[in-house]
Write a structure and sequence with these properties.
Shape: elongated
Distance between the termini: 36 Å
Number of domains: 1
Largest sheet: none
Strand content: under 5%
């Protein structure tokens, strides 16, 4: 039921963001999406570390474990960034409604390029 309510909320807010001059609404919607998709960071990071580890050593399990651990860290960071965006959407902090965490959304760098230095 919670997932259906979240989906309905997101779908009702999408038209608000259609206007480019609606920076506060975009910040709010970005926050809602980041809160909803924060747990996806765990498999995203585990996959990236798995690929990275397969290129370096046969000890894949250690790399996957590191990826899962880093995924939990990224989940907390994305969740915090999303909550910040939802709570502070009327204010232009940081400057020009910029996100606290890059990329703006979890799927913008999916799949992660393991050679990007992360």
């Amino acid at each position: 039921m919670k997932k259906i309510m979240m989906l309905c909320l997101m779908l009702t807010l999408v038209p608000i963001v259609a206007h480019a001059d609606q920076a506060p609404a975009h910040k709010f919607l970005r926050g809602v999406f980041n809160v909803a998709t924060a747990p996806i960071e765990v498999p995203k990071q585990a996959r990236a570390y798995w690929i990275k580890g397969a290129q370096k050593t046969p000890h894949i399990i250690a790399w996957i474990g590191c990826g899962v651990a880093w995924g939990f860290v990224q989940t907390v960071k994305r969740l915090g960034s999303g909550v910040w965006d939802v709570v502070s959407f009327p204010f232009a902090k940081p400057a020009d409604y910029e996100p606290l965490l890059k990329p703006d959304y979890v799927f913008q760098e999916w799949p992660i390029n393991p050679n990007s230095g992360r």
